[in-house]
Design the sequence.
């Protein structure tokens, strides 16, 4: 393998140009080619990066022995087939979320990558976000006490999808963050939603997950809200955290707040609670672009054979939760065990 990993980006629509920019700027990567069925999108790429070859043929990418790795940023329903074909062509693969549309497909990709001895990585970009990494550190060190519950709002007005619902399009980010922060899979999932713009896909979904030790996780995802919100709240027994991903400064705020039980629990009338309200602390975080961190990690794993932080198994866990949530949606919000 050359010192630089030769990469192709497939899909140059909404997210693809961000991958193109990062791989082009990485000293450890050589962006060889970009692929899309839309010539206008390829023209924009060519104007920005004249040395990068462009093609409308995915077969050309797979047949090019010079290309060692592909990054897939295509519609979600194409992820499985495109990733499978890339692995069969002995390419290392980075797949944007979700890894696939079923756990069966995800498991097949994992097995194929192992057999071919190729890197399979999923673009759960928030697991490369310095703010999320800081929250993970605080949770693991017990600085907020016992985690009671976590809830997130990931809503916006626009970027409406017609082939997949808000669950599969938007919620994977927060599902991956919850699993990462808690270090465990939920035991059960319940989901409700509604179709307002398109009778075939839910525009808004509410997903509630029950984790071990009674920890609750809740995700609201929608492309039908009046303003853009990317916020997560983590409530602990001793402290609480608000993470606002679109805040210019102070993305994490730690609240020294909690409620404590006073008195004797076994004596009637002795239940008393004390509310503790202390300082609000904003930790200093050296913010680097999460996608840059993700792309660099992918290249490093390809070069060294190391296991990616968000490997196929990581992607499979998220897909299993999404599957359970979809099953709950289809059955009117019943609880589905994992």
Sequence:
């Amino acid at each position: 393998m050359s010192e630089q990993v030769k990469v192709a980006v497939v899909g140059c629509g909404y997210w693809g140009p961000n991958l193109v920019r990062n791989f082009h700027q990485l000293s450890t990567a050589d962006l060889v080619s970009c692929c899309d069925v839309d010539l206008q999108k390829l023209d924009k790429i060519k104007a920005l990066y004249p040395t990068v070859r462009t093609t409308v043929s995915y077969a050309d990418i797979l047949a090019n022995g010079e290309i060692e790795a592909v990054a897939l940023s295509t519609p979600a329903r194409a992820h499985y087939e495109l990733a499978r074909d890339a692995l069969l062509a002995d390419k290392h693969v980075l797949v944007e979320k979700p890894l696939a549309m079923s756990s069966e497909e995800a498991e097949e990709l994992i097995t194929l990558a192992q057999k071919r001895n190729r890197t399979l990585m999923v673009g759960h970009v928030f697991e490369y976000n310095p703010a999320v990494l800081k929250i993970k550190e605080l949770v693991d060190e017990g600085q907020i006490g016992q985690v009671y519950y976590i809830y997130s709002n990931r809503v916006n007005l626009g970027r409406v999808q017609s082939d997949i619902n808000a669950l599969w399009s938007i919620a994977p980010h927060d599902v991956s963050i919850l699993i990462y922060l808690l270090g465990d899979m939920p035991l059960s999932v319940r989901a409700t939603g509604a179709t307002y713009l398109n009778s075939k896909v839910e525009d808004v979904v509410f997903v509630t997950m029950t984790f071990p030790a009674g920890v609750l996780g809740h995700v609201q995802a929608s492309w039908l809200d009046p303003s853009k919100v990317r916020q997560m709240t983590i409530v602990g027994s001793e402290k609480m955290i608000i993470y606002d991903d679109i805040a210019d400064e102070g993305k994490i705020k730690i609240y020294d707040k909690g409620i404590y039980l006073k008195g004797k629990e076994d004596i009637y009338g002795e239940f008393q609670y004390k509310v503790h309200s202390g300082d609000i602390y904003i930790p200093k975080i050296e913010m680097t672009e999460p996608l840059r961190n993700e792309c660099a990690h992918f290249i490093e794993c390809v070069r060294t054979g190391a296991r990616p932080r968000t490997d196929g198994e990581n992607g499979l866990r998220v897909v299993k939760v999404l599957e359970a949530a979809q099953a709950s949606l289809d059955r009117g919000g019943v609880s589905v065990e994992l």
About this structure: The chain is about 35% helix and 30% strand. The mean pLDDT is 95. The first helix runs from residue 16 to 25.
